[in-house]
Amino acid sequence: MASSASLPVYHYLDIGRLGRGEVVNLFLQDAGIEFKKSLYPWDATWPQKSNDLKEKGLTRTGKLPALEYKGKILTQHIPILRYLSREIGSYDGETNWEKYVVDAVSDIYVDWRSKWVANLSEKKPEYKDQSAPEYYNLVAQYYSATQGPYLLGDKVTYVDFAVYQSIDNDRRTGTLPSTLPESLLKFKSAFEARPNIAEYIRQNE
């Protein structure tokens, strides 16, 4: 077991299982990477704390998540996942085509996330009635291209964590479409059954 001082440190907002930082958290949980958490209240103190973190060099944008990992500071949640995947030598495509597919779906997820975040304040019915279904139907085309349950078949990749988080976040904000494509239902079930993920969900529902 690594000493406490040498463990990676995960910095994020104390908002439960919502948001982009949770994608990184899920990845760390699944990969069995031991780490420490540093969570910050999402309240009136956050603007000052954000500035403090910028001054300390933990984030250039003032946004989180950030991950202190082996002497480096990693920011931006999708690039963090890519970095860790390369570091571990897993969680990515093996061929150039597979890597392209994973990257393509991650871009689609990023587009979805911008709309999801905007809807947190706007709360327009167009998001749930149009934007969310369009996103899931598009992603499902990629997932249904293999036997599943994951994007690349039986091999989980970093983007699966992001897609799962989109489903879970829409569920938590009441904006998940009433029905999801079969390929995504199959994926969600398999993802939640992964041993480390299942245990994490059990403790943090």
UniProtKB/TrEMBL annotation:
Pfam family, one: GST_N
GO annotation, biological process: glutathione metabolic process
Top-rank taxon, per record: Eukaryota
One MF annotation (Gene Ontology) recorded for this entry: glutathione transferase activity
Domain GST C-terminal: 95-205
Location of the GST N-terminal domain: 8-92
InterPro entries per record: Glutathione-S-Trfase_C-like, Glutathione-S-Trfase_C_sf, Glutathione_S-Trfase_N, GST_C, GST_superfamily, Thioredoxin-like_sf
PANTHER family: GLUTATHIONE S-TRANSFERASE
Protein name, entry field: Glutathione S-transferase
